[in-house]
Design goal:
Length: 182
């Protein structure tokens, strides 16, 4: 008896193709019935398909947009795809520039320590901060990232308000004194 024969005259080691073409397994792997859609089928899901179509929402019930299929590749440097949900201005990176940069592994923000370009670097940090933080530090999820950056932003806005009050208060006091003394 050779390795290619068994008692029924078939193959001992059938190929994957032979297995999926058996009648009892064909329905489970046939992608036309959407019970087991491939990743490409999920990504290229037509927009007009209803939310109650069996394959798509049963596999990923909370996913309705292609952008949500972006894998969490944070912390991989410039190879990291930055999700749309986290792009935008970061008040924490603007207000705390180099301190924020140290905590988020965004080493470019350390350029803000150079006095001549500190303000310019703070503005750049505010604009690019979310992208730098996502690319340079591993995050558990987009939600964890947003939660952390919201805290930085809250403290950044608070610092800016305090800074404005402390800077404007003496100016207002001087103007008031000159107005009343003259």
């Amino acid at each position: 008896m050779s390795d290619d024969d068994n008692i029924d005259g078939g193959k001992l080691n059938p190929s994957f193709h032979d297995l999926i073409n058996q009648p009892d397994m064909a329905g489970a792997i046939n992608h036309e019935n959407h019970l087991n859609p491939t990743f490409d089928e999920l990504i290229n899901k037509p927009e007009e398909a209803s939310n109650d179509s069996p394959g798509y929402n049963s596999v990923f019930p909370n996913v309705n947009k292609k952008s949500e299929f972006i894998p969490n590749n944070s912390g991989e440097g410039s190879k990291s795809m930055v999700p749309k949900e986290i792009q935008g201005w970061n008040w924490g990176a603007f207000a705390f520039s180099w301190i924020w940069g140290l905590c988020n592994n965004a080493w470019l923000a350390l350029i803000a320590l150079v006095p001549a370009i500190s303000l310019i670097m703070s503005i750049i940090s505010g604009a690019k901060g979310n992208e730098w933080a996502w690319q340079n530090k591993k995050w558990e999820s987009i939600e964890a990232f947003q939660k952390t950056q919201r805290k930085w932003s809250s403290w950044g806005i608070a610092l800016l308000i305090v800074w404005l009050v402390l800077c404007l208060l003496p100016i207002i006091l001087i103007v008031w004194l000159f107005a009343h003394l003259l």
